[in-house]
Amino acid sequence: MSLVVYNTMSRHKEEFRPREEGKVFMYVCGPTVYNYIHVGNGRAYLVFDVIRRYLSYKGYEVFYVQNFTDVDDKIINRANEEGKAPEEIARHYEAAFLEDMRGLNILPPDIAPRATETIPRMIEMIRGLVDKGYAYAVDGDVFFRVESFAGYGKLSGRSLDEMRAGERVEVDERKANPMDFALWKASKPGEPAWESPWGKGRPGWHIECSAMSLHYLGMGFDIHGGGQDLVFPHHENEIAQSEAFAGSEPFVRYWLHNGFVNIQEEKMSKSLGNIILVREILKRYPADAVRLLALQTHYRNPIDFGPEALDEARRAYERLENCLFALDAFLAKPPDMTAPQRTQREVELSDSCFDFERRFEEAMDDDFNTARAIGVIFELVKELNTYLDEQELYQTPAAPMVASHGRDVLLKLCNILGLFSPAQRERESREAVVREETGPSAESLIELLLEVRAVAREGKQFATADLIRTRLRELGIRVDDLREGQRWKYVGPPA
Ligand code: AMP
Ligand code: ZN
Hints:
- The chain is α/β, with parallel strands linked by helices.
- The protein folds into 3 domains: 4-284, HUPs (Rossmann fold, 3-Layer(aba) Sandwich), CATH 3.40.50.620; 307-423, Four Helix Bundle (Hemerythrin (Met), subunit A) (Up-down Bundle), CATH 1.20.120.640; 439-490, no CATH class.
- The chain has helices at 39-57, 73-82, 86-103, 119-131, 160-166, 205-217, 231-246, 278-284, 287-295, 307-331, 344-365, 370-390, 399-416, 422-436, 442-458, 462-474, and strands at residues 4-7, 12-15, 23-28, 61-66, 135-138, 141-144, 181-186, 201-203, 221-227, 252-258, 261-263, 266-267, 303-304, 477-482, 485-490.
- The strands form 5 sheets. The chain has a 4-stranded parallel beta sheet with strand order 4-3-9-10, sandwiched between helices. Strands 5-6-7-8 form a 4-stranded antiparallel beta sheet.
- The chain binds adenosine monophosphate and zinc ion.
- Adenosine monophosphate binds at residues 29, 31-32, 40-41, 43-44, 226-227, 229-230, 258, 260-261, 267-269.
């Protein structure tokens, strides 16, 4: 099956053909490290995490680069506000970003270059652009001359006149065209600065990404990603600089952009003051519920974010979890060898598992349609639950094979999307072990309470049983009475 992807450049879905057979070179614009990331930012990294995971699943060797913008006006302003060095701010939020990525179970990039460690490459590019007449220096600043690059506007589909009408650009007498943008900025006293042919200064944001992506991936790499707000001017400018410098095109084969996370139909953004931090959400919801919320919408469509959507995603996550739990409990029981060999449903279920895999892949091959792919996963869950309900009386001799096949397929499809990932489970259990070493763990005490509760229920002491359940819920622990027994999980204190 062939993969098609929507290319922002052509505004069409195109068959995905990478530069080198079997390999994918991709670059995603990383964070400007001056604050904690919000769930809109989180969505961008999550979308590209899933795209990367799926490409690996398809058999591609993926090489993924994602930068840190660690020199920027915003970082300098923040440092001034807090009376700290810009570097201190950048390192703090870089570490926080890595923590949030781990929290969301996003795989780390193969290379995560810092802008400040790639400055010589940027200076080399800017010098090349000046030499070729694409850029000019004024008072220690260097600007890109947009009119010199014939293809300017091809990504955003806007002419220079339209851009001028659409953007509020500050009047700067020194620029040949108001849309000309800075490649290099002369530094003010006390700001981070590097020596350059134009005096002491620092790079502009756009040139950072061009220099870092070209350095690690070379011209014509496969995928460049980011949120839709980066199409213009950031990615438009990256194309102009890179293609003008290289004297060839394309800079990038496929441009992919994720849709926004909105709050009441407005983009979540720091400037609007409507942000919710990834780290706050992760205190109250499991990472997989957050991943499900993001992936239940196609990556190019907007998501309306709010408590209802989160609770719904948590319930969806629990449906998956319950199904896996019930399958495990079922598989732990011995089959009844006197029962019929296998039922008609078992024959059908075994066959349909392959069909579920095929339909999942078809959805993902269609421009990474995770929304449809998750729909397929939930259809499989429904089939498996119906099967388990029917098997309540006895297990056929074929049941262990049928149930474990279903379980394997379910987990496999979830894992491709980074859900129920073994790495995440291992991390969680390691954290639990660390807690064990310091005394009886909370987990073991909860298990003890549940044992007492089970005894109370057997003795029809329902008031005691209910008291234990209510008190645990107040502590943020929810107990469910399932057919297989009691199950608890930490869901956070009641709202
Ligand atoms: P920034 O730090 O603003 O450059 O954003 C980091 C990444 O998050 C970029 O790819 C942005 O396009 C993306 N992004 C920012 N805000 C949102 C949002 N509300 N929804 C989705 N993606 C966003
Ligand atoms: Zn970038």
